[in-house]
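Section 5.1 Outputs to date
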Amino acid sequence: MFGYMGKLLRINLTDSTVKVEDLDFELAKKYVGGRGLGTKILFDEIDPKIDALSPENKIIFINGPLSGTPTPTGGRYMVVTKSPLSGTIASSNSGGTWGARLKYAGYDGVIVEGKAVSPVYIDINEDLVEIKDASHLWGKMVSETTDILVENKKKTNVLAIGPGGERLSKMAAIMNDKDRAAGRSGVGAVMGSKNLKAIVVSGNLKVSLFDDKQLKVTVKESNLKIKENPVTGEGLPTYGTAVLVNAINANGIFPTNNFQEGVFKDAEDISGETLAEKYLVRKDPCHRCLIGCGRYTKTDKVEGGGPEYETVWAFGADCGVKELDKIIEANYWCNQLGIDTISVGATIAAAMELNQVGALNDVDFEGVDLTFGNAEAIVYWTKKIGLREGFGDKMADGSYRLCEMYGRPELSMTVKKLELPAYDPRGVQGHGLNYATSNRGGCHVRGYMIAPEIVGLPEKLDRLSLENKPLWTKIFQDLTAFIDSIGLCLFTSFALGADDYAELYNGVVGTNWTGEEILKAGERIYTLEKQFNIAAGILPEEDTLPARLLYEPMPSGPTKGHVHHLDKLLPEYYELRGWDNKGVPTKERLKDLGL
């Protein structure tokens, strides 16, 4: 089968064995690759009820059939495991070059199981695969670890955890190429629980393509659409993802002070335009990316990749901070320590509100108070979280556990214990429905309804209307599941539609799928994830939003007076999916999807 390398690596860290297995092509066709195939493998091989940080959990690094090909943005890979933060399925996406390099080394994925006695790293150089001692790397920051492991090697990329993953922070990320993150769901803690510090990949093999000549034509057409689109051809390349700051703030859905408000008066100070003017060194695109939204920035203290829009918001408006240099610094330390910028910033914001209401009167803040607007606090406490020091140790497992610990769980702005990102659902009804029904918890990139509700792509929807929002949300979720599974970047969907992805997929793999068929494949993957969560014990009532967003009207701004109407949207959404009124897929729908 074209597009796949035809091999999986299975590495057992308990008994230090390495096995090369043939890829099941029928399974790959049914579940595509990446997010879909990784979920299927995990569900088949573990009990979803296990402790996510136990040796019984497995962690799968897997790319899609379009990873490492000439297709636009063909470099994404997925990390699939059970999440220690939420208890749900975790499938965390990352860019850079590591995923493509894994294909060039000859593998579609790596399945890691068991636990090493002491710190190790995995060294993959095409046919030579070794488990090596990493005791000299344990405790080191991500960039230093990467430099040591790359040395003077060519065509080599490194994936690693930092101290956050080693210390089992449930917000720990997996970093690759220094600044790229499989950031959400605490996947870095799963690596840390296995004493696995890094995976080094070297290789220069080629990915076979079904129709190279026709694919060139299809890629050229897709690239033209991406270049001509105002978002992917102008906004993102010029200002990065932080181009959204002013637009989201103008609509009154820029969560401020832990979602107490929807407008941040100092938004311009932390905008993508200000970032480009004051701190941008260069664009930093991922493998095969013509969009180039990645930023490489520098302040008088730090330099490195980022920050992204979500990071700017989490450490900025959500914490009431307007000092962009401090936000960049907090982002830098998240990358070095290997912790998720969204969850860390949101947890600091939750701690600030806990302090605001008097719940932290007995906490030693070490001279750096957790108060909204304190720019020094976001840097100081980010480091403390990553190192699990002082009060940072209590924050290191996320805002839900922190707020519950201090008797105020309602102040955690999470869904299924995963922190919500930078859009207040009171003013984007479809996007809020996506939050509530996302299989990995509070996530914006499982069905990015901001595209039609704010940006106006593929068409402009009334952001406050409930009409057809369940259908739109389902379509976006299904399409995203397919995009994540083939190995492309979600941002291409600003310019490309289902038929475009079908053509790219067919040109690489050799199938004759239609846009309708790829949406059905996405629905199969989304429903399988739901089945995993049900088996893991995730309760029906967890398809919800924080009470603040359901019952407390937005106090001011363009969204003033609005709440999210999940109660009206959820029943229709379940019906469209063929799930019962508790969100459980019916036998008929499972049969229809081949599940």
